[in-house]
Amino acid sequence: MRRTALLLGAALLSGLLAAPPPAAASAPGPAVKVAQVKASPAKQSGGCPTTVGFSAVIAAAKGAGTVRYRWVRGDGSRSAVKSARVSRTRAVVVRDRQTFDRTTSGWQAVEVLGRKGLSAKARFSVTCRGPVTVWDDRHHLPARPGKPLVAAASVTADPPSYGGTCPATVRFTGTIQVSRTPAKVDYQWIDSATGEGQAQSLSFASGGPRSRQVVLPMAVGSSTSGWKAIRLITAGHDSGRAAYQVTCRSAPPASPPPTTPAPTTPPPTTPAPTTPPTQKPVPSITGLTPGDYAGECLEPVAYQATGRIALPAGPAAKVTYWWILDGNKWQQQVLDFAASDQPRAQDVTAAWSLERAGAGRHTLGLMTEGGPAEPVTREFAFSCTDQPGDAKLTFHYLLTPVFHGVCDGSYGLRADGLVTTDREAEVKYRLVIDGKPGPTRSEVLRPGVKSKIGDFWYGSARTSGTGTVRLEVLNHDKPFMQESYTWTCKEREPSPGAVEITELWPVAYHGDCADAPYVTAHGAFAAAPGTEITYRWVTDGDPTAPDTLKVGQSGILEVQAAHWDRPERKDGTVVLEVLNHNKPAMRAAYPVTCR
User: Is the omega angle on the peptide bond into residue 182 within 30 degrees of 0, that is, cis?
Assistant: First the structure.
């Protein structure tokens, strides 16, 4: 019997997993079309945080079968892989939802795995008016007795950052407030990878507290990061994002052999309340993403499961539960249930990842103490269809950003490299920003042709600093380049009716300088919507012809300079000038490093 090792993050679970012989290759999926890709609402302006929903229709153009898909976002992130059964007579509506707590714009599209390209893009814009208000246990929602109900939510992660042995647990605590009682609030959890969760309800008794908490524990078995938020289906204020990061540094220690303790007189203890026999908890697994997986394994494939523990009406109780993966029990957790004359339920989640060595069939289980004698289970298959190639790639240069501008929100940055290959090859690559890997990208390169590969990310620092960009190819001979990038923050200078240059960033060139170094620059203006701005670039003292553009509804106008060569092969400067209105200008230097 073939045996495979399951990697639970950085840690190797004790023991090896027996797996059946590989199944025969499955038939190719049906030919599909993706239509009606929409954002709802596509444009919104008002208080933040807020959420935007995305939907699309997937249908089979011919044939029938299971389609694997994911959402691809304009900020470079991707959702978890999901699956849907489609046919010519059965279309499926797929959905995602994202929470935003700052002014932003972008797009989302659907990628069907195994098919090149993306669907049409659902574009959206969010404009946050006024300061972001957080309604939590220290900032109470004002009472409004006798008036229409208003609700508000906030979420915290505990711990927000963890480094150590895994499995670990991150507990998300949501605080939901109402402006009056009695009230019933409908809400759902939003996850950065899996989108919207199940709709749930929370009741507030007449004359009772106007604030209640909901807890969502997440068992984490591998290094991961993301966020969770609460969207209020009932009219109100959505929560912001509760970000978390887990870094698994070593394997869990082996259980020590039993020892005989020295005889002692134990102090008297008060036993914790347990679930009475008449309150039998019932566990269920409500979701598993991505479920059956067959695809590339250049990086660990993230999994997330959701479950629910139900309890009949009765007194307050504690319920102990745990997840089980291929017979390996995760650290057990305890849920607190308040007394209630109605049936009760709480959601639980788990996150882990699988690598190439974990190919085979797996079983996920969820079990409670005092519940059914056997865990509820769900099986899933995991296989890697990609094979590392043997093309030889060579880096010629790497361009990294030199940002100057206002740092009061997120700002987009990017890095690009120039590579050649000795044969036609599909290249998988990614950026690693300050040690944190970004999403994997893919390009097909032709032999002997210098090709640019790269990606972008968002910075959010509030003070000036420097970091490191690493552009690495994940297959073939796995070359990489690593260099620094910088950001310099300036104060915003509000001036009604004026034009402001909010950012200017050229690129730093690091390369062989066999050809004249390639340079470019990016800039952005802030002004009232509809303002016409006439501007020009001055690169190393050489002005370009002026150009005129109009500011859109977002109040921000982004521009990019035409690239230019630096035949002097030394550092230079670039200036962005506005030629009308209050005529602001900004200057930035860029370095050229020849290797």
Answer: yes
For the chain, report the end-to-end CA distance as a whole number of angstroms: 53
**Distance between CA 93 and CA 71 in Å, rounded?**
13
Bridge partners of residue 57, in order along the sequence: 35, 93
Residue pLDDT, tens place only, 319-365: 999 999 999 988 789 999 988 888 999 999 998 988 888 999 999 99
Q: What is the pLDDT of residue 251?
A: 47
Residue 501 is predicted with a pLDDT of: 93
Outline where 99-191 has alpha helix (H): none
Q: What is the pLDDT of residue 222?
A: 87
- Report residue 18: phi and psi, to 5°: -75, 135
Report how far apart, in Å, the C-alpha atoms of 294 and of each of 65, 114, 135, 364 are: 15, 10, 43, 18
pLDDT at 533: 94
Lookup result for tokens 């929602």: 141
Contact 361, 379 (CB under 8 A): yes
Rg (CA), the chain: 27
**Which of 306, 291, 459 minimizes the C-alpha distance to 383?**
291
The type of residue at 540 is D
Counting as low any pLDDT under 50, the low residues of the chain are 1-27, 251-272
Return d(Cα 425, Cα 558) in angstroms, integer.
Answer: 34
Task: Note whether 541 and 556 are within 8 A (CB).
Answer: no
Coil/strand/helix, residue 554: coil
Instruction: Name 205's Cβ contacts closer than 8 Å, sequence gap at least 6.
Output: 181, 182
Question: ∠ CA 77-80-85 to the nearest 5 degrees?
Answer: 130
CB-neighbour burial class of residue 138 (10 A; exposed 0-12, middle 13-18, buried 19+): exposed
Q: Are 576 and 557 in contact (CB under 8 A)?
A: no
- Euclidean distance between CA atoms 573 and 587, whole angstroms: 7
Instruction: Evaluate whether 112 touches 183 at the Cβ level (below 8 Å).
Output: no
Buried b (16+ CB within 10 A) or exposed e, 250-278: eebeeeeeeeeeeeeeeeeeeeeeebeee
Q: Can you spell out the DSSP letters for 478-547?
A: --EEEEEEEEEEE-----TT--EEEEEEEEEEEE--SSPPEE-EEEEEE--TT-EEEEEEEETTEEPPPE
